């Protein structure tokens, strides 16, 4: 039986990182619980102290197909290279220079939202289509593929 998957990020700023990944993935902030107009209203009603209102955040695929991305505040910073990372499919169906141009455009767009460009890998046929390694605002590596 197939299972739903949620991808969880440990981070220092759940609201900030969820905003970045919503932009990167074309996702949106998860709606507040039913009966609330905003997360601030929901958290206030739930009795969550102001200093804990950025302890978690989540973004979802607006079409419901992709996994939920959950961001939770942790006290420690990132310490080593990710063993698992996301590949953001920014150039599906493209090859060669057209593919790399699309990846470069996406790298530039995400850099404007706080990402850092780490390394470009040129196409190496037959198996290597080319990609760009990036880091999100908290240093988590991901690839534009």
Notes on the structure:
The protein is α/β, with parallel strands linked by helices and 145 residues long. The chain has two domains: 6-73, Signal recognition particle alu RNA binding heterodimer, srp9/1, CATH 3.30.720; 86-144, Signal recognition particle alu RNA binding heterodimer, srp9/1. 25% of the residues lie in helices and 26% in strands. It has helices at residues 14-25, 39-46, 96-111, and strands at 6-11, 28-29, 56-60, 68-73, 86-88, 116-121, 131-135, 141-144. The strands form two sheets. The protein has a four-stranded mixed sheet with strand order 1-4-3-2, with helices on one face. Strands 5-8-7-6 form a four-stranded mixed sheet, covered by helices on one side. The protein starts with 5 loop residues before the first strand and ends with a strand.
How would you summarize this macromolecular structure in one to three sentences?
This protein is about 25% helix and about 25% strand. With about 140 residues, the chain is α/β, with parallel strands linked by helices.
């Amino acid at each position: 039986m197939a299972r739903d998957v949620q991808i969880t990020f440990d981070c220092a700023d759940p609201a900030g990182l969820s905003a970045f990944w919503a932009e990167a993935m074309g996702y949106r902030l998860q709606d507040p619980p039913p009966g609330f107009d905003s997360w601030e209203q929901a958290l206030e009603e739930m009795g969550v102290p102001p200093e804990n209102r950025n302890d978690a955040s989540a973004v979802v695929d607006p079409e419901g197909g992709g996994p939920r991305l959950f961001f939770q505040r942790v006290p420690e910073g990132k310490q080593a290279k990710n063993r698992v990372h996301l590949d953001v499919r920014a150039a599906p169906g493209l090859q060669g220079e057209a593919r790399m141009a699309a990846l470069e455009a996406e790298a530039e767009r995400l850099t404007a939202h706080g990402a850092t460009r780490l390394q470009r890998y040129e196409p190496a046929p037959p198996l290597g289509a080319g990609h760009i390694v990036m880091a999100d605002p908290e240093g988590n590596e991901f690839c534009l593929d």
